[in-house]
Design a protein that fits this description.
heterodimer, A: 492 residues, mainly alpha, two-stranded antiparallel sheet, 21 helices, 79% helix, 2% strand, B: 140 residues, 6 helices
Chain lengths: 492, 140
């Protein structure tokens, strides 16, 4: 069965989604989705071990050899992403049972878990495939599932949030498709490895340059790089808590992965950073994004919205790392993709627990939380410390590597910007911690969140500390992935 | 609608041929242009005409929504399970060569089953979409 690992990850949610839509009541679809996500996590971990032991893992769909057929090609970068996606799904789904029944209602639960499984399917699919058009197909699967999930939020504003994401997401996906179409016209192939081989010879044509521009812009819309981030705050604020936790941790990260794959593997470092001014465009946008979004998040009265703006800022760090175009920058970027998934997942899950007990997620609901819901509150404190980048948390590991990468290039102003971003994070996290610690509870009779929410939440919080102390696993894999990507990524 | 006699008669006359053409496109997909997507839409369009001429209630008596939901899900399952069957018989996922002793026969079996699954899902989802929109005014 080991030879089928890449397809088993996809197959679990693919088979689960239609079955979940036919089940009744809130519990059966939940149980099915949870078990399948654990199975997918097991497959992803085994896949990572296989990649580590034997190198790039290739699976030909339907037995059709690439470049004619679709191949799934797994190296360190996508194995790491797969573990992140399925890992977060395995934690968010157990958490979802109480949260979703509370926020969405029992009758719509089967539909919810169907959409969530389709979302997992889409995200995993984008990650494993080695075919540029197949990426688009899975992108659509995940996007349509996302629109549905966001629209299920309690607040009616979820509908407009979902609709504006639908418009922006469709523009992004269309731009991507136009770019891929141009590449297909020029090379006659859609296979990523094949594209990477053929592009250098014709890279000096305006069609290829236009394709590059379309693809990078389209993906930057999906990953919410400043100033293309406007869909994100509303989408994250109004969608159900479990959805926000999963989306915030994985969806934009997968788009980052696609950007990395195109910039480094397909177009290659020399084209992206030599012939094209990618660093000159992305570095300023990333820095403006991380500073402005952090500043805006200080002023948000709704904490879920504050965390959403913080996500835009974190995307700034991630894009900054990859825009450096060096192995160290790429390592930092991949590390932060993984680490930010852990911290934002945990923080959004805290907000779900607060919404479950207090009925809202504004800063008033957070007041006096240390007294009424101490475990939830301390989870927020630890997640917040990780977001700031305090040593012994994952946030420190990735920011440390990012600063090292900037120093290697001698980009002192960038180092200052990264530190300034962390200072702003101290302010916006500190504001909430202060309210929780010293504020008077709005309703002192409220008690701690149920264990069904706390256990998955604390699993993620502990992961934040664990990977902050034991950095061997994440740093080694990120470094190996960066080395592979810098080498052009085409390992035959 | 009862006074649109000509439309109703012509519609009744056309519906069987539309269904038949849908089936033709479905099974011709194995040899030439056609396949599950197109066939599903054509098949569903017969039900759309029926709804327009005879009303939503009548159409939902023929194709109740709960059945359509089951059909939509089972179409996806047929597709996915054909792939699993190929895997269990020793090939890669969706490698139809392994579905029969003769690889060419295997390809035929595989593509017909997969297209059948696609056809079921597309037809029932098209109908569900139409019924949902057509029924919006009546519910409230």
């Amino acid at each position: 069965m080991l030879a089928h690992l890449p397809v088993l990850v996809i197959l679990a949610p693919l088979l689960g989604a239609p079955v979940a839509s036919l089940l009744r009541g809130p519990n059966w679809p939940w149980l099915l989705a949870t078990l399948l996500s654990w199975f997918a996590l097991l497959c992803s971990v085994l896949l990572l071990i296989q990649v580590n032991a034997q190198g790039t893992f290739i699976y030909t769909m339907g037995g059709w050899e690439a470049p004619w057929g679709i191949e799934y090609r797994i190296d360190f970068a996508n194995a790491l992403l797969l573990v992140l996606i399925t890992g977060l799904a395995s934690v968010v789904l157990p958490y979802a049972r109480l949260s979703v029944e509370h926020e969405i209602g029992a009758d719509r639960c089967p539909l919810f878990y169907t959409a969530l499984l389709l979302l997992i399917l889409g995200l995993c699919g984008i990650t494993v495939t080695g075919d540029a058009f197949n990426v688009f197909v899975f992108l659509e699967v995940s996007s349509l599932a996302t629109y549905t999930l966001i629209a299920m939020g309690r607040d009616r504003r979820a509908l407009t949030a979902s609709f504006s994401y639908l418009i922006m997401g469709t523009i992004g996906a269309t731009f991507y498709l136009i770019g891929v179409g141009f590449l297909y016209v020029m090379t006659g192939t859609l296979n990523m490895a094949d594209l990477a081989e053929r592009l250098p010879a014709i890279s000096d044509s305006s069609t290829v340059r236009t394709a590059f521009a379309f693809i990078v812009t389209g993906i930057c819309l999906k990953l919410a790089l400043f100033p293309l981030h406007l869909w994100l705050p509303n989408a994250y604020t109004y969608s159900p808590s479990a959805v926000t936790a999963f989306l915030g941790a994985t969806a934009t990260k997968v788009a980052v992965y696609v950007l990395i794959r195109f910039v480094f593997t397909i177009f290659g470092v020399e084209f992206s950073f030599g012939a094209e001014p990618l660093a000159e465009i992305l570095v300023p946008l990333a820095i403006i994004g991380l500073l402005s979004a952090s500043t805006v998040s200080i002023m948000q009265p709704n904490i879920k919205r504050m965390l959403a703006y913080s996500s835009v800022a974190q995307i700034g760090y991630i894009v900054l790392g990859l825009a450096m175009g060096t192995a160290m920058g790429l390592t930092a970027s991949l590390l932060h993709v993984f680490n930010h998934g852990l911290m934002k997942g945990a923080l959004f899950m805290v907000m779900g627990a607060v919404a479950y007990r207090m009925g809202g997620t504004s800063i008033d609901d957070m007041r006096g939380l240390a007294k009424t819901m101490p475990l939830t509150f301390w989870a927020f404190v630890l997640g917040g410390l990780s977001l700031i980048g305090v040593p012994l948390t994952v946030g420190f590991v990735s920011k440390w590597h990012l600063i090292l990468a900037a120093l290697e290039l001698g980009w002192w102003p960038v180092v200052v910007a990264i530190l300034a971003g962390s200072m702003l994070a101290v302010v916006y996290v500190g504001r909430v911690v202060e309210a929780g610690f010293f504020g008077e509870p709005k309703d002192a009779t409220k008690r701690e969140a149920p264990w069904g929410l706390l256990v998955p939440l604390w699993v993620l919080v502990i992961a934040n500390i664990w990977f902050g102390i034991d950095t061997r696993l994440t740093v080694d894999i990120a470094e190996a992935a960066a080395a592979q990507l810098m080498a052009g990524g085409v390992v035959r | 609608m009862s006074d649109h006699l000509i439309l109703r008669i012509v519609g009744k006359f056309l519906i069987p041929y539309i269904l038949l053409f849908g089936l033709y496109v479905q099974f011709h997909g194995d040899f030439g242009p056609g396949g599950g997507f197109q066939a599903g839409v054509i098949f569903a369009s017969a039900f759309v005409i029926h709804t327009l001429l005879f009303g939503l209630e009548s159409a939902e008596r023929i194709a109740p929504q709960w059945i359509l939901k089951i059909v939509a899900a089972s179409g996806v399952l047929i597709y996915a399970l054909v792939g699993v069957a190929a895997m269990l018989m020793g090939g890669n996922y969706l490698d139809y060569d392994f579905l029969a002793a003769d690889p060419i026969a295997g390809q035929h079996i595989g593509i017909i089953l997969v297209e059948f699954g696609v056809g079921l899902t597309v037809a029932s989802v098209m109908m569900l979409l139409f019924f949902t929109f057509a029924g919006r005014g009546e519910a409230s």
